[in-house]
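A brief tutorial aside. Many learners find it easier to grasp structure tokens once they have seen a single protein encoded end to end. The record that follows does exactly this for Membrane protein. Read the sequence first, then the structure, and try to relate runs of similar tokens to stretches of the chain.
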Amino acid sequence: MNQLLHFNRTIKKIHLWLGISCGLLASISGLTGSLYVWQPELSSALNPKLLTVSEIDTISEETLLQTASYLMKRHKDSLIRINLPYREQQTVSLIFENGETHYHHPRTASYLGTKSVSIQFFEDLLNIHRTLGIPKIGKYIMASSTIIFLLSILCTGIYIWWKAYGNNLKRGFTIKWKAKKKKLNYDLHKVLGASFFIPLALIAFSGAYFTYNSYYKAAFTLLDSSKRTQNNNSDIQPKFTELIRKPDSIYALRAIYFPSKNNKDFHFRYIQDRFIEPGFRRSKELKITETDQISALTDYYTDTNSNKIAAQFYPIHTGEIAGLLGRIIVFFSGMVPITLYITGFRMYFIGRKKS
């Protein structure tokens, strides 16, 4: 009995001190992520001339490739990337070596403008979400705090909640709105923590993947079969001129990355659905050398189980895998850490006043 009491006290101390420290980072990550969930809609609404075109569904894949090919030839060696319509962007964007971004009409190739303040804002917001804006080590700080949030704060919190309300779940999910501030604060903390435990755990687990993806993939290789399926896609045309002219039979071309100092290959990125759709994320990555030799190829339909699973972390993290409902859940879940942080702090100070 004494050992159990000591264990429970230890769990509460871990929950308290990690909540006070890493909880702040989790709150920043949650708030920025919550706002970024609606980035596609907000960006489109704020930048209709740059990102939207009328009757986008009537523009064929052949036309999109012709536009990209024309723009590529026109700007020659000054490009580092061409983005075709994808997610909120219905236009074609060119990323230049000098850092500028130009937008062009997907059918006529006419110039539409450069990157706006609001587009830059969301790019900066994503950078804060992923790295706190700290170069090099920022992503490790955020990813590590996310793992601590998942394994320590959430798990110890649900353990404390279960010990108190495991025999009376109704009480564990009850908020007495007319109670005194102290009681209301406690009820908000316990109910929000328990109610959002699963979505927060999924968001935290999927979020850490983007920094520690190699470890995740190594673990998921246990699910791979001993015989790997070979890619026999006969539609692949390794010649650059063919790739920029002929649409893929399954996927839509979403971006072309041009050779750089660090990477001498052309990188073609494909996606099955150009715009946001619920369900699994299906994509293809193709790299070819300047002599038109395939150096790397991954395809969802012929890939290993581990890579197929890894491809779903982004739609899980954003909630897009479950459509609009999933995004709404992620949006509200992102606000929970800061609420838990504030209510937890208040509980801590109330306890200190008593002692």
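Self-check: The chain has 14 helices and eight strands. If you spotted this yourself, you are ready for the next section.
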